[in-house]
């Protein structure tokens, strides 16, 4: 079974609109962390936002927010007021448990922002 | 301050040759990770270092792959007798190394390996 599932291979959004990128995860460990990274065409992986499994509130970082629904095991990324520079691949990742620091990545969603 | 650096940025090699990929982590980061990203795919974990030790090597795909880290800093990923399926982008990341926390991994630009 996939640990991290991103069901949207591609998404389009108009500039200044909000967009939600979906991510579901699978783990039986009560302690885990969820991350979102952005990968522009240049190839670098840019950290966006983090949500811990015990965090009571949804994480927010500027225009990025994470819609964390623990019971549904989903951690969707919401980008508000999209900009042309947001066009990139977006990866959801999970750190599972307290005894490991490795990240398990989803297959990514390609977001294209159009004027 | 400087981020994670990797060299070379691109490497083309012939099948059967050995290659070495280098990673310089962020200064002060004790944890270092290697990942592989095949074309159009997500990242696949290879190996994790804490200091000079590798407590998790579970992602290395075969015994042709090895990695070491010296002085708690630079790491080298070696692929022996390269195969065409080894063609991928190899990404290195580092983090502070405080286990169990909201450890953010900072990635380097990657090495694009092409095996002909």
**Rounded mean pLDDT score of chain A:** 94
Rg of chain A (CA only) = 14 Å
Low-pLDDT ranges of chain B: none
The SSE string of chain B, one letter per element, is: EEEEEEEEEEE
Helix content of chain A: under 10%
Low-confidence stretches of chain A: none
Q: Tell me the span between the first and last alpha carbons of chain B.
A: 37 Å
Estimated radius of gyration of chain B: 13 Å
Number of beta strands of chain A? 12
- Biggest interface, residues from each chain: A-B, 27 and 29 residues
Order of helices and strands of chain A: EEEEEEEEEEEE
Shape of chain B: globular
Total beta strand runs of chain B: 11
Please describe what this structure looks like:
With 115 residues, chain A is mostly beta strands. In chain A, 0% of the residues lie in helices and 51% in strands. In chain A, the strands form three sheets. In chain A, strands 2, 5, 6, 10, 11 and 12 form a six-stranded mixed beta sheet that branches. A four-stranded antiparallel beta sheet of chain A has the order 3-9-8-7, with no helix packed on it. The model of chain B has no long low-confidence stretch (mean pLDDT 92). Chain B is built from no helices and eleven strands. In chain B, the strands form two sheets. In chain B, strands 2, 4, 5, 6, 9, 10 and 11 form a seven-stranded mixed beta sheet that branches. Chain B starts with a strand and ends with a strand. The relative contact order of chain B is 0.33. In chain B, a hairpin with a 5-residue loop joins strand 7 and strand 8 (75-79). Classes of the chains: A mainly beta (115), B mainly beta (116). The A-B interface holds A 4, 31, 33, 35, 37, 42-47, 50, 52, 91, 93, 95, 98-108 and B 31, 33, 35, 41-45, 48, 50, 56, 59, 89, 91, 93, 95, 97, 99-100, 102-110, 112.
Please provide a brief summary of the model.
Chain A is mostly beta strands. Chain A has no helices and twelve strands.
């Amino acid at each position: 079974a996939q640990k991290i599932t991103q069901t949207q291979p591609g998404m389009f959004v108009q500039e200044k609109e909000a967009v939600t990128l979906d991510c579901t995860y699978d783990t039986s460990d009560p302690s885990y962390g969820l991350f979102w990274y952005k990968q522009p065409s240049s190839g670098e992986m840019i950290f966006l936002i983090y949500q811990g499994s015990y965090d009571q509130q949804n994480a927010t970082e500027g225009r990025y927010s994470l819609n964390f629904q623990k019971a549904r095991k989903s951690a969707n990324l919401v980008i508000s007021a999209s900009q042309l520079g947001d066009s990139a691949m977006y990866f959801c990742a999970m750190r599972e448990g307290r005894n490991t620091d490795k990240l398990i990545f989803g297959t990514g969603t390609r977001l294209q922002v159009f004027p | 301050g400087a981020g994670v650096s990797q060299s070379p940025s691109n490497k083309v090699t012939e099948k059967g040759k050995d290659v070495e990929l280098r990673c310089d982590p962020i200064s002060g980061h004790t944890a270092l990770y290697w990942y592989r990203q095949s074309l159009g795919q997500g990242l696949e974990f290879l190996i994790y270092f804490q200091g000079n030790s590798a407590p998790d090597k579970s992602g290395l795909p075969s015994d042709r792959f090895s990695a070491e880290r010296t002085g708690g800093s630079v790491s080298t990923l070696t692929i022996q007798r390269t195969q065409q399926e080894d063609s991928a982008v190899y990404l290195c990341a580092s983090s502070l190394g405080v286990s169990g926390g909201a450890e953010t991994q900072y990635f380097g630009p990657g090495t694009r390996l092409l095996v002909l």
